[in-house]
Specification:
The protein is mainly beta. The protein contains 2 helices and 19 strands. The radius of gyration is 54 Å and the shape is extended. The chain starts with a helix and ends with a strand.
Length: 334
Protein backbone atom coordinates (compact mmCIF):
# COMPACT_ATOMS: atom_id res chain seq x y z
CA UNK A 1 0.00 0.00 0.00
CA UNK A 2 2.82 2.30 0.86
CA UNK A 3 4.46 1.43 -2.46
CA UNK A 4 1.39 2.49 -4.41
CA UNK A 5 1.25 5.78 -2.51
CA UNK A 6 4.90 6.48 -3.25
CA UNK A 7 4.37 5.67 -6.94
CA UNK A 8 1.35 8.01 -7.10
CA UNK A 9 3.26 10.77 -5.41
CA UNK A 10 6.10 10.43 -7.87
CA UNK A 11 3.73 10.66 -10.81
CA UNK A 12 2.25 13.85 -9.51
CA UNK A 13 5.66 15.39 -8.98
CA UNK A 14 6.76 14.32 -12.46
CA UNK A 15 3.67 15.85 -13.98
CA UNK A 16 4.45 19.22 -12.40
CA UNK A 17 8.03 19.04 -13.58
CA UNK A 18 6.92 18.47 -17.17
CA UNK A 19 4.59 21.42 -16.96
CA UNK A 20 7.39 23.59 -15.66
CA UNK A 21 9.72 22.50 -18.49
CA UNK A 22 7.16 23.22 -21.30
CA UNK A 23 8.29 26.09 -23.67
CA UNK A 24 6.36 29.24 -23.07
CA UNK A 25 5.57 31.36 -26.26
CA UNK A 26 6.31 35.09 -25.56
CA UNK A 27 4.71 37.77 -27.70
CA UNK A 28 7.43 40.37 -28.52
CA UNK A 29 6.84 43.96 -27.40
CA UNK A 30 5.92 46.32 -30.27
CA UNK A 31 8.77 48.58 -31.70
CA UNK A 32 8.50 52.16 -30.42
CA UNK A 33 8.71 54.95 -33.14
CA UNK A 34 10.58 57.74 -31.30
CA UNK A 35 10.24 60.24 -34.20
CA UNK A 36 6.51 59.85 -34.09
CA UNK A 37 6.52 60.40 -30.35
CA UNK A 38 8.63 63.64 -30.74
CA UNK A 39 6.31 64.85 -33.47
CA UNK A 40 3.33 64.33 -31.23
CA UNK A 41 5.10 66.14 -28.37
CA UNK A 42 5.89 69.14 -30.59
CA UNK A 43 2.33 69.23 -31.85
CA UNK A 44 1.05 69.13 -28.32
CA UNK A 45 3.45 71.90 -27.18
CA UNK A 46 2.63 74.10 -30.18
CA UNK A 47 -1.05 73.60 -29.54
CA UNK A 48 -0.49 74.66 -25.94
CA UNK A 49 1.51 77.75 -26.94
CA UNK A 50 -1.14 78.75 -29.46
CA UNK A 51 -3.80 78.40 -26.86
CA UNK A 52 -1.75 80.51 -24.43
CA UNK A 53 -1.13 83.18 -27.08
CA UNK A 54 -4.85 83.36 -27.75
CA UNK A 55 -5.47 83.90 -24.09
CA UNK A 56 -2.50 86.32 -23.30
CA UNK A 57 -1.28 88.52 -26.24
CA UNK A 58 2.53 88.93 -26.57
CA UNK A 59 3.54 92.54 -25.70
CA UNK A 60 5.27 94.73 -28.41
CA UNK A 61 9.03 95.41 -27.83
CA UNK A 62 9.78 98.88 -26.56
CA UNK A 63 12.48 101.12 -28.24
CA UNK A 64 13.49 104.71 -28.56
CA UNK A 65 13.16 105.77 -32.19
CA UNK A 66 15.80 107.90 -33.95
CA UNK A 67 13.85 110.72 -35.54
CA UNK A 68 14.85 112.26 -38.85
CA UNK A 69 12.71 115.38 -39.05
CA UNK A 70 11.33 116.29 -42.42
CA UNK A 71 10.47 119.80 -41.29
CA UNK A 72 11.81 122.41 -38.89
CA UNK A 73 11.27 121.35 -35.25
CA UNK A 74 8.77 123.51 -33.45
CA UNK A 75 10.18 123.50 -29.92
CA UNK A 76 14.02 123.74 -30.23
CA UNK A 77 15.25 127.10 -31.44
CA UNK A 78 18.70 126.95 -33.10
CA UNK A 79 21.23 129.67 -32.15
CA UNK A 80 21.28 132.57 -34.57
CA UNK A 81 24.56 134.36 -35.41
CA UNK A 82 24.19 138.12 -35.63
CA UNK A 83 24.37 139.44 -39.16
CA UNK A 84 27.41 141.62 -39.89
CA UNK A 85 26.71 145.30 -39.96
CA UNK A 86 26.81 146.79 -43.41
CA UNK A 87 28.09 150.11 -42.10
CA UNK A 88 30.76 150.26 -39.42
CA UNK A 89 29.64 152.86 -36.90
CA UNK A 90 31.91 152.02 -33.95
CA UNK A 91 35.41 150.59 -33.52
CA UNK A 92 35.38 146.80 -33.71
CA UNK A 93 36.64 144.96 -30.61
CA UNK A 94 40.39 144.57 -30.37
CA UNK A 95 41.88 141.13 -30.68
CA UNK A 96 40.13 139.84 -33.82
CA UNK A 97 43.23 140.61 -35.94
CA UNK A 98 46.80 141.35 -34.88
CA UNK A 99 46.87 144.49 -37.09
CA UNK A 100 43.60 146.33 -37.58
CA UNK A 101 42.62 149.98 -38.01
CA UNK A 102 39.46 152.03 -37.56
CA UNK A 103 38.76 155.11 -39.64
CA UNK A 104 38.08 158.04 -37.30
CA UNK A 105 37.84 161.13 -39.51
CA UNK A 106 39.06 163.07 -42.53
CA UNK A 107 41.18 165.81 -40.97
CA UNK A 108 41.69 167.48 -44.36
CA UNK A 109 40.06 167.11 -47.78
CA UNK A 110 36.59 165.70 -47.14
CA UNK A 111 35.00 163.47 -49.79
CA UNK A 112 34.31 165.26 -53.10
CA UNK A 113 36.29 168.33 -52.05
CA UNK A 114 36.61 170.77 -54.97
CA UNK A 115 40.24 171.17 -56.04
CA UNK A 116 41.67 173.33 -58.84
CA UNK A 117 43.33 171.47 -61.75
CA UNK A 118 46.94 170.61 -60.94
CA UNK A 119 46.72 172.01 -57.39
CA UNK A 120 48.85 170.52 -54.62
CA UNK A 121 47.23 169.55 -51.33
CA UNK A 122 47.84 167.48 -48.20
CA UNK A 123 45.40 164.72 -47.35
CA UNK A 124 45.28 163.72 -43.67
CA UNK A 125 43.38 160.74 -42.24
CA UNK A 126 42.91 160.04 -38.54
CA UNK A 127 43.03 156.32 -37.76
CA UNK A 128 42.73 154.32 -34.55
CA UNK A 129 44.68 151.16 -33.74
CA UNK A 130 42.04 148.55 -32.81
CA UNK A 131 44.36 145.56 -33.21
CA UNK A 132 46.63 143.90 -30.69
CA UNK A 133 50.05 145.02 -31.96
CA UNK A 134 51.84 148.37 -31.71
CA UNK A 135 52.39 150.14 -35.01
CA UNK A 136 55.98 151.35 -35.27
CA UNK A 137 57.73 153.77 -37.60
CA UNK A 138 58.40 150.73 -39.83
CA UNK A 139 54.69 150.62 -40.65
CA UNK A 140 53.65 152.50 -43.77
CA UNK A 141 50.58 153.75 -45.59
CA UNK A 142 50.83 152.46 -49.16
CA UNK A 143 49.15 153.69 -52.33
CA UNK A 144 47.39 150.70 -53.94
CA UNK A 145 45.19 152.06 -56.74
CA UNK A 146 44.62 155.03 -59.10
CA UNK A 147 47.74 156.90 -60.14
CA UNK A 148 45.80 159.85 -61.58
CA UNK A 149 46.17 161.75 -58.31
CA UNK A 150 49.93 162.18 -58.00
CA UNK A 151 51.45 161.12 -54.67
CA UNK A 152 54.36 159.16 -53.23
CA UNK A 153 54.10 155.39 -53.33
CA UNK A 154 54.06 155.20 -49.52
CA UNK A 155 54.54 157.25 -46.36
CA UNK A 156 55.88 156.24 -42.96
CA UNK A 157 53.70 156.44 -39.88
CA UNK A 158 54.70 159.56 -37.94
CA UNK A 159 54.85 157.83 -34.54
CA UNK A 160 54.38 154.61 -32.62
CA UNK A 161 50.71 153.79 -32.19
CA UNK A 162 49.80 151.43 -29.35
CA UNK A 163 46.48 149.52 -29.35
CA UNK A 164 43.71 152.01 -28.57
CA UNK A 165 45.72 155.08 -29.70
CA UNK A 166 45.03 157.33 -32.68
CA UNK A 167 47.35 158.74 -35.33
CA UNK A 168 47.07 161.35 -38.08
CA UNK A 169 48.68 160.25 -41.36
CA UNK A 170 49.34 162.90 -44.01
CA UNK A 171 50.19 162.46 -47.69
CA UNK A 172 51.30 165.12 -50.18
CA UNK A 173 49.17 164.95 -53.33
CA UNK A 174 48.66 166.78 -56.60
CA UNK A 175 45.33 166.93 -58.42
CA UNK A 176 45.02 165.92 -62.09
CA UNK A 177 44.79 168.72 -64.66
CA UNK A 178 41.69 167.25 -66.33
CA UNK A 179 38.31 168.05 -64.81
CA UNK A 180 36.35 165.27 -63.11
CA UNK A 181 35.93 163.12 -60.00
CA UNK A 182 38.97 161.15 -58.82
CA UNK A 183 39.61 158.62 -56.01
CA UNK A 184 42.94 157.36 -54.68
CA UNK A 185 43.03 154.17 -52.56
CA UNK A 186 45.45 153.43 -49.71
CA UNK A 187 46.13 150.55 -47.32
CA UNK A 188 48.38 150.09 -44.28
CA UNK A 189 51.35 147.72 -44.33
CA UNK A 190 53.14 146.28 -41.29
CA UNK A 191 56.86 145.68 -40.78
CA UNK A 192 56.48 142.12 -42.15
CA UNK A 193 55.12 143.43 -45.45
CA UNK A 194 51.53 142.34 -44.77
CA UNK A 195 48.70 144.65 -45.77
CA UNK A 196 45.80 145.52 -43.48
CA UNK A 197 43.16 148.20 -43.25
CA UNK A 198 39.81 149.16 -41.78
CA UNK A 199 36.26 147.78 -41.79
CA UNK A 200 34.81 144.64 -40.24
CA UNK A 201 37.42 142.44 -41.93
CA UNK A 202 40.34 144.73 -41.10
CA UNK A 203 41.34 144.66 -44.78
CA UNK A 204 39.35 147.49 -46.39
CA UNK A 205 41.38 150.41 -47.80
CA UNK A 206 40.97 154.10 -47.03
CA UNK A 207 40.72 156.69 -49.78
CA UNK A 208 40.74 160.33 -50.78
CA UNK A 209 38.12 161.58 -53.24
CA UNK A 210 38.37 164.95 -54.97
CA UNK A 211 36.37 166.81 -57.58
CA UNK A 212 38.64 168.74 -59.95
CA UNK A 213 36.79 171.85 -61.14
CA UNK A 214 37.70 175.21 -62.57
CA UNK A 215 37.91 177.72 -59.78
CA UNK A 216 38.35 175.01 -57.14
CA UNK A 217 40.42 175.51 -54.03
CA UNK A 218 44.19 175.17 -53.80
CA UNK A 219 44.72 173.94 -50.22
CA UNK A 220 48.45 173.93 -49.56
CA UNK A 221 49.17 174.21 -45.84
CA UNK A 222 52.80 174.74 -44.88
CA UNK A 223 52.38 172.95 -41.53
CA UNK A 224 50.33 170.17 -40.03
CA UNK A 225 49.60 169.25 -36.42
CA UNK A 226 49.49 165.72 -35.04
CA UNK A 227 47.57 164.84 -31.84
CA UNK A 228 50.60 163.25 -30.12
CA UNK A 229 50.66 161.20 -26.95
CA UNK A 230 49.93 161.61 -23.24
CA UNK A 231 52.95 163.84 -22.54
CA UNK A 232 53.85 165.31 -25.95
CA UNK A 233 51.08 166.67 -28.14
CA UNK A 234 50.32 169.17 -30.92
CA UNK A 235 53.61 168.54 -32.73
CA UNK A 236 54.00 170.64 -35.89
CA UNK A 237 56.63 171.88 -38.31
CA UNK A 238 56.44 174.85 -40.69
CA UNK A 239 58.81 176.17 -43.35
CA UNK A 240 59.28 179.79 -44.30
CA UNK A 241 58.95 179.04 -48.02
CA UNK A 242 58.28 175.72 -49.67
CA UNK A 243 59.81 176.69 -53.02
CA UNK A 244 62.89 178.73 -53.93
CA UNK A 245 64.59 179.59 -57.20
CA UNK A 246 67.76 181.69 -57.17
CA UNK A 247 71.38 181.77 -56.14
CA UNK A 248 72.76 179.11 -53.80
CA UNK A 249 73.59 178.26 -51.12
CA UNK A 250 70.12 178.98 -49.77
CA UNK A 251 68.86 178.81 -46.20
CA UNK A 252 65.43 177.47 -45.32
CA UNK A 253 63.95 178.49 -41.97
CA UNK A 254 62.00 175.84 -40.06
CA UNK A 255 59.87 176.24 -36.92
CA UNK A 256 58.80 173.34 -34.72
CA UNK A 257 56.06 173.57 -32.10
CA UNK A 258 54.85 171.10 -29.49
CA UNK A 259 53.07 171.02 -26.13
CA UNK A 260 54.13 169.21 -22.95
CA UNK A 261 51.80 168.11 -20.17
CA UNK A 262 54.58 168.25 -17.54
CA UNK A 263 58.23 169.19 -17.04
CA UNK A 264 60.32 166.63 -18.88
CA UNK A 265 63.46 166.01 -20.92
CA UNK A 266 62.81 165.85 -24.65
CA UNK A 267 64.98 164.24 -27.33
CA UNK A 268 64.32 165.63 -30.79
CA UNK A 269 65.73 165.80 -34.32
CA UNK A 270 64.90 166.60 -37.95
CA UNK A 271 64.35 163.90 -40.56
CA UNK A 272 64.03 164.26 -44.32
CA UNK A 273 64.02 162.58 -47.68
CA UNK A 274 64.63 163.83 -51.22
CA UNK A 275 63.45 162.56 -54.58
CA UNK A 276 66.56 164.07 -56.19
CA UNK A 277 69.50 161.63 -56.54
CA UNK A 278 72.58 162.78 -54.66
CA UNK A 279 70.78 165.48 -52.68
CA UNK A 280 72.37 165.95 -49.23
CA UNK A 281 70.67 167.12 -46.03
CA UNK A 282 72.77 168.96 -43.45
CA UNK A 283 70.63 168.18 -40.41
CA UNK A 284 71.95 169.02 -36.92
CA UNK A 285 72.45 165.98 -34.65
CA UNK A 286 69.71 164.84 -32.27
CA UNK A 287 69.54 166.90 -29.08
CA UNK A 288 68.15 166.38 -25.57
CA UNK A 289 66.96 169.31 -23.48
CA UNK A 290 64.73 169.81 -20.47
CA UNK A 291 61.50 171.73 -21.05
CA UNK A 292 58.82 172.98 -18.71
CA UNK A 293 55.16 172.12 -19.14
CA UNK A 294 53.29 174.09 -21.77
CA UNK A 295 53.80 175.21 -25.39
CA UNK A 296 57.30 175.01 -26.86
CA UNK A 297 58.90 176.48 -30.00
CA UNK A 298 62.18 175.53 -31.68
CA UNK A 299 63.80 177.16 -34.72
CA UNK A 300 66.15 175.56 -37.26
CA UNK A 301 68.13 176.87 -40.24
CA UNK A 302 69.08 174.52 -43.07
CA UNK A 303 71.58 175.49 -45.78
CA UNK A 304 71.42 173.81 -49.18
CA UNK A 305 73.94 174.25 -51.99
CA UNK A 306 72.34 172.24 -54.82
CA UNK A 307 68.97 171.89 -56.47
CA UNK A 308 66.57 169.36 -55.13
CA UNK A 309 63.15 168.68 -53.63
CA UNK A 310 61.74 166.52 -50.87
CA UNK A 311 60.20 166.65 -47.42
CA UNK A 312 61.26 167.36 -43.81
CA UNK A 313 59.72 166.22 -40.53
CA UNK A 314 60.29 167.17 -36.85
CA UNK A 315 60.70 164.03 -34.77
CA UNK A 316 60.54 163.54 -30.96
CA UNK A 317 61.84 160.18 -29.70
CA UNK A 318 61.62 160.73 -25.92
CA UNK A 319 59.71 160.75 -23.63
CA UNK A 320 57.37 159.55 -26.39
CA UNK A 321 57.77 158.71 -30.07
CA UNK A 322 55.84 161.51 -31.79
CA UNK A 323 56.49 163.46 -34.96
CA UNK A 324 55.03 166.20 -37.11
CA UNK A 325 53.60 165.76 -40.55
CA UNK A 326 55.92 166.29 -43.49
CA UNK A 327 56.50 169.69 -45.02
CA UNK A 328 57.59 169.88 -48.65
CA UNK A 329 60.34 171.99 -50.15
CA UNK A 330 61.71 172.63 -53.62
CA UNK A 331 65.02 174.31 -54.44
CA UNK A 332 66.30 175.37 -57.86
CA UNK A 333 69.80 176.81 -57.84
CA UNK A 334 70.76 179.26 -60.65
Amino acid sequence: MKSISKIFTCLIVFTFLLAACKTVKVTPAPTIDTNAILTEVVKTAFAGMTATALITPTPEPSFTPTLTPTSTPETPTPPVSPAPSATLTAPPPAGSLPDKAFFVDDITIPDKAEIAPGASFIKTWRLKNVGTTTWTSSYTLVHISNDTIKSPASVDLPKKVAPGDEVDISVDMTAPTALGMYTSWWRLKNDAGQYFGVGTTGLDPIYVQIHVVEGGGTPQPTSSVTPGGAIVSAVSLSIDQDSYTGSCPHTFGLTANFTLSKDVKVTYALKGQSDTPGFVFNFPPAQTSKFSAGDQTLSFSLDFTSSGSGWIRFLITAPEDVSSAKVKFSLTCQ
